[in-house]
Structure formats: C-alpha cells, structure tokens
Specification:
Shape: globular
CATH class of the largest domain: Alpha Beta
Number of strands: 14
Strand content: 25-35%
Structural class: alpha/beta
Radius of gyration: 20 Å
CATH topology of the largest domain: Dihydrodipicolinate Reductase, domain 2
CATH architecture of the largest domain: 2-Layer Sandwich
Helix content: 25-40%
Largest sheet: 8 strands, mixed
Order of helices and strands: EHEHEEHEHEHEHEEEEEEEHH
Strand order of the largest sheet: 8-9-10-7-11-12-13-14
Length: about 300
C-alpha cells in the first residue's frame, strides 16, 4: 500500500484526501486548524497530525496548503528525499520557484489537473494530428465571481490552469507579449493577455481570467487554419468542431461536429499518475518543476506588462 503525507485539508485538500483513499492509499494528514482536522477525520484519514515532524514515514507527499505557504513547506520537505506533488502554482515568487527547481527539480511535480482533462487531451490530439490544418493559436477564458484564496490574487489561482493547458495542447508556452488588468481597492479583478506574437511562425495564445463576472465560464478554443475546436465547459462530455469552409458565406454558421471525450475527473487521474510513479509502474506525472517554474515566470512577466509588478 502506498503511503502518502498530505499537507493541508482545506476546500481542495479534502477532495484530494477523498480520491487518495479511493485509490487505496494510506494517508497521513497534516492539519493545523480545527476545521482542517475535522475534515481529515471525516475523510477517513489514516492519521492526523498537527506538525510536520509528527508525520510518519511515507512514500511521497502531496502539498495542498495555501499558495503563499508552498515555498516554506517545500523547503522543509525536500530534505526528506521523497517525491512531492504540489498544488499549482509552484509558488507565487519566481525566485523561490527557481531556487526550489534547482534544489530538487527531479522530485517536485505540479498538480496541473487540466493537463489530465479529457477535453484538453482531445484538443491536444487534434492539434498534433493536423486534421484541421496547422495550429494558429489558442484562446482560453476563465471567469467567475470572487476569489476564495485570499492569500494571493486571482491571477495566481486562475492563470496557471490556462498556461498549463497551453503546454499540453501546443507543446510549449509562448512568450508573453502584452497584458492588461482591471483592479479595485481590494486588488486584481481581471487580467487579459497575449503570448507569442513576437514569433509569428509559432502558435499564439490569448487568455482572459477574472473574478468579477456574473457568468461562470471555462472555455478552451483551438484555432487552426481549416477550422476551430472548442471545449465550452469543464464538465462537457464532448468537444465541438467547426470547419472553416464557407465560414464567410451568407448561408450562416457551419455545422458543428460533437466528438465525445473521456469524463473521468482530472484530479483522480493526476493522483493516479502520482501513485503509479511512486510504485515504479510508470514515469513521472505531468508538469515537472521546470514547467511549474516556467508558468510562475510567465505570470510574473504578464503582471509586469500589465503594470502590476512581478
């Protein structure tokens, strides 16, 4: 039985605990607050401790504490010599992420669940196949109301998803070109940007994230020379394809082809990948420390382009 040390049992940590138990892992939870401790006990954790030193010997760690605490906990875990699966983003500080990647880049992996999403994987396969011709670019939208993670601004919570999607579909992350932000007295409200326009020979990316939208929206649109393919919602069981042929004709919109996609929850899939890696049954999970660092550096650069500071 694989033994996991889970750090944190908050809103997302309790779901990680649920899936780890479903996968048959022995889970010891570090839960500092009373609410976290109660969630860990309710989730049938095999052990619940209040300090890192009290965690028993494990095969690997899953870090699900607030983003602002990632770097501090990772530095304490690295000397343990075990693989670490850290919730995105790697950190909210590029210099810290760089130092950690240099220190233990072969043992730290980032939990980018959208890289396991059936719709994203279908779009990635379509991009590689060339069925719709060469890829021109990628458009993503991630909007909602409010930011439940008060330790960091909304861009650090929302944008890592879309940048990791770009890595999965395009196979690389274009360089930031321009960005613009909406702010209020409470901080960042929205951020939009374009990546990749400096190199017109490769696909670009355009994104919009925000915490002041009356409509909850999660969309991914792959734009190719001969058509577009899109995922319209996180829980869709299909992607939609539309061909470019006659798109400018007066007859109206082209027909839409719906292609089914796998619907297994991405969190379960990424945790499965981590456990399989710990059992030496497959290679490491997606999103290495190097890719996690790239995402952090891109967000820092986009913030600078938008006048927010790095």
């Amino acid at each position: 039985m694989v033994k996991i040390g889970l750090l944190g049992c908050g809103r997302w940590g309790r779901l990680i605990l649920r899936d780890l138990k479903q996968l048959g892992a022995h889970v010891a939870v570090l839960a500092v607050g009373e609410a976290s401790r109660a969630r860990a006990l309710e989730g049938k954790a095999d052990a619940v401790v209040s300090t890192l030193d009290a965690l028993p010997e494990v095969d690997g760690y899953v870090v699900a504490v607030p983003t602002a605490l990632h770097a501090a906990f990772l530095r304490q875990l690295v000397p343990m010599g075990k693989p670490i699966f850290c919730e995105k983003p790697f950190t909210s500080d590029a210099s810290e992420a760089r130092a950690l990647a240099h220190l233990a880049g072969d043992r730290i992996f980032i939990m980018d669940k959208w890289r396991y999403h059936g719709g994203v994987l279908a779009l990635a396969a379509l991009a590689r196949s060339g069925e719709l011709g060469p890829v021109l670019g990628l458009k993503t939208t991630r909007l909602g109301w409010g930011n439940p993670h008060m330790d960091v601004s909304a861009d650090w919570i929302l944008l890592p998803h879309d940048l990791s999607i770009a890595i999965e579909i395009l196979g690389y992350l274009p360089k930031p070109t321009a960005a613009w932000a909406e702010t209020s007295e409470d901080g960042l409200i929205a951020l939009s940007g374009i990546l990749g326009l400096e190199d017109r020979s490769r696909p670009w990316m355009q994104f919009e994230i925000g915490a002041r939208s009356p409509v909850h929206r999660r969309t991914v649109e792959l734009r190719c020379r001969d058509g577009i393919a899109s995922l319209s919602d996180a829980y869709d069981d299909h992607i939609a394809l539309q061909r470019t042929v006659n798109c400018l004709a007066e007859a109206g919109a082209s027909s839409v082809e719906m292609r089914p996609v796998a619907t297994t929850m991405p969190l379960l899939l990424e945790l499965t990948a981590f456990l399989e890696y710990l059992c030496h049954r497959q290679g490491p999970p997606k999103s290495s420390a190097a890719e996690g660092l790239l995402v952090v550096e891109h967000i820092s650069r986009l913030r600078t382009l938008a006048g927010l500071g790095g």
